[in-house]
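Worked problem 6 (solution included).
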Amino acid sequence: MAGTDPRPYLTEANYPCGRDELLRAAAAGDDVLGPLGALTATDYADGDGVWDAVCACDGASIHDTAKEAP
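Solution. The predicted structure is:
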């Protein structure tokens, strides 16, 4: 499983949009924001395209994509 399906959290997204808009629109926890943050900086046509991209990223968590503070 690639993680939590982000589509229910993206009702405020204005498609087509990029990763930054998805992160802004999502009102969710780390299990959704982490995989969204791991997406490439491209435009996504709709929620299904976002879900396909999240699945392709293999559901990287926010802890996998964030740098640890020194």
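Discussion: Confidence is low (pLDDT under 50) at residues 59-70.
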